[in-house]
Amino acid sequence: MSDDPIDRSGLRPAFWETVPLKRMTQREWEALCDGCGRCCLNKLEDAETGEVALTRVACRLLDGESCRCAQYPIRHQFVPECIRLTAATIEQHAYWLPRTCAYKRLWEGRGLPDWHPLLTGTAESVHEVGVSVRGWTIPEFEVDEDDWEDHIIEEQ
Ligand code: SF4
Ligand code: SF4
User: Which protein family is it in (predicted)?
Assistant: First the structure.
């Protein structure tokens, strides 16, 4: 699994099926992330209905090829509003997380999809099935915020 920036080795077998989110170790929690980059897309939220639409306009720090944050450890210096997702905060964030997000899936009791790196053994599987944002995002500094609605994407 050398291509995987997340260390998913040595974890309890199928912990995502048996351990509740709040009881996972920090490494298990981190290993749930599929690396899709979708949570780093800008969203539009309807003030009246509360509906959330994802756009392909990405946070300025997202690397559109690796689908990773370019400055993750110090990201709040540049993007103070970036959230820290934990088992304690997922309830307040689940409504806007992408449908495919592993944290949201487990929180909703849907389990992991068969393309998840924990099941395939490779971080490439999220890109191969087209769930990741690789290759189709636009940096937010290239699009006026008033035009984001022209870039709404269909969720899978
Ligand atoms: S949407 Fe979820 S699974 Fe995908 S990168 Fe974000 S936290 Fe990880
Ligand atoms: S700061 Fe980094 S982790 Fe946060 S939304 Fe932007 S790219 Fe994603």
Answer: Belongs to the UPF0260 family.
Residue 78 CA: which ligand is closest?
2
pTM of the complete model: 0.95
In the chain, % helix, strand, coil (3-state, to 5) comes to 30, 10, 55
The domain ranges of the chain are: 15-151
Sign of CA dihedral 137, 116, 66, 130: negative
CB 12 within 8 A of CB 19: yes
Q: Which two tokens stand for residue 111?
A: 């389990």
Q: Answer whether 31 contacts ligand 2 (Cβ < 6 A).
A: no
For 83-139, the pLDDT digits (tens) are 999 999 999 999 999 999 999 999 999 999 999 999 999 999 999 999 999 999 999
Q: Is 101 in the pocket of ligand 2 (CB under 6 A)?
A: no
